[in-house]
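Hey, can you fold this one?
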Amino acid sequence: MKRARRGFTLNEMLISLVLLSIIGATFTRFLRYQTRYFAHETTLRTARTVARTATNLLLSDLRVVQDSGGVDSVASDGKLIRVLVPYRFGLVCATNGLTTTVSLLPSDSATMAMSVYKGFAFRNATGRYTYVFPTDPTNSSQLPIASSTPASCTGNGNGQAQISSVSVTGRTGDIIDLRGVASGAPAVAPVFLFEKVSYSFKASAVYPSELGLWRNVEGGRDEELVAPFDTASRFQFYKAGDDISRVSPPDKAEIRGIDIVLNALSQKAASSAASTNSVKVVTSVFFKNVRAF
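Sure. Predicted structure:
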């Protein structure tokens, strides 16, 4: 006997549609939460990248600053610090009148092209560096020039430094005359040339409503390194013996290190958020060019 063919009943269809609707709504909600979570994490990661990039840029300058006399000035609100950054090293050969002759180690052309000479510093008998500033850094006669008496460095005679020339990967050192007196310098005292470098938090050119981190080599132009940051971003300061950084800057001669407080922002808000995300990163940097104690 032939059996009758049977389809779905209306009740079965309605139950199936209800179940499919529940599963579909649950899956849609899950996808929406996952999308929001991904957008949130992406904006946080972007903010962290802003902070880490800024930290890496500062470290190369700040770590070579001399721990005594290396800070030129700080702003009371912690938004700016100017430091004397060494960019070339050598030895003092002789001082004659108002001129100090030095023998410098080789340096690459990129370093020289990006640096602006602001003076030199020599290590005295106490282990501290004495800074010598040109009286008029805009006057070409105050700038380093090839020495007129190179034998005072390379010669073997009485009162000559007997310093051998050094060559590295095809680059040779220089013997130059500096305008200024290395008064009290021991024989063949270490010396470095320095530039003035400022780091500051001020209005960003890319994100005008937020702060950017700016770098300026005095005698050059401002360059915005990275942005955006919120208004809480600043520098804080360590004196010798401090375990916690100070908000109010001490005397510049007493600064031994800084905290870089970066409240970095993501460049845009996640689709589900009303504002951008922020990440606070604090990096402590202590000057590694430490005098003898």
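Residues 64 and 289 are 5 Å apart (CA to CA). Let me know if you want another pass with a different chain boundary.
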